[in-house]
Write a structure and sequence with these properties.
This protein is α+β, with helices and mostly antiparallel strands. It has one domain. The protein is built from 2 helices and 10 strands. The strands form 2 sheets. Strands 3, 4, 6, 8, 9 and 10 form a 6-stranded mixed β-sheet that branches. Strands 1-2-5-7 form a 4-stranded mixed β-sheet, with no helix packed on it. It starts with a helix and ends with a strand.
Length: 191
């Protein structure tokens, strides 16, 4: 089959457009932390692909950070991989503290604005909602299954300990304006 110059030019232009679009997507958007990656904080209760699989996540293993409570969204993160949770397999997170400390899941802050279908990422990507104004601490929490509307969305997960941290921002929803220790790992909702 003989191709004309115009046909070759169109094919090449299409190839360059696809390559440029692929480069514009940050690598962290499509890469999940593997079983041995430092970003993976999960201890899974069953093999990958198992429906209802649970990630036991010890909040003590999260890196201590300075959460910024004023942000309603965050810029894309490309320097590390996300912990990924499957909508199709109803994977969920069961939080606990190996040191027996009280903590709370404050909220999930969106990193991406659009889901896999081009719609806005939901504020709450899991069936369980976490309200930043509910300043109640406990020893265990479960996210329940992820929502299909969160497919393709990435989040920072804010976890606060009841422990005081003088370097942390004051909690705006706490009547006493206490400074709680905070940690915020990165997660993504996948197929």
């Amino acid at each position: 089959m003989k191709l004309g110059t115009a046909t070759v030019a169109i094919v090449l232009a299409g190839s360059f457009a696809l390559a440029a679009r692929a480069q514009a997507i940050p690598s962290a958007v499509t890469v999940c932390a593997g079983e041995t990656d430092a970003e993976n904080l999960c201890s899974w209760d069953s093999a990958a692909g198992t429906h209802g699989r649970k990630c036991a996540l010890d909040v003590e293993h999260m890196r201590r950070t300075a959460c910024d409570y004023s942000k309603v969204s965050l810029p894309s993160i490309s320097d590390h991989k996300a912990m990924c949770f499957s909508v199709g397999n109803a994977e969920h997170i069961a939080f606990n503290s190996s040191q027996g400390r009280n903590f709370r899941v404050r909220r999930l802050v969106p990193i991406t604005h659009k889901n896999a279908h081009g719609q806005a990422c939901p504020r709450d990507p899991f069936a369980k909602t976490f309200d930043p104004t509910d300043v109640n601490f406990g020893s265990a929490f479960d996210t329940l299954a992820p929502k299909s509307s969160a497919l393709g969305c990435q989040y920072k997960l804010e976890v606060q300990f009841q422990t005081a941290d003088p370097n942390a921002q004051p909690e705006p929803n706490d009547q006493q304006h206490r400074h709680f220790e905070c940690r915020d790992p990165h997660l993504r909702i996948t197929n």
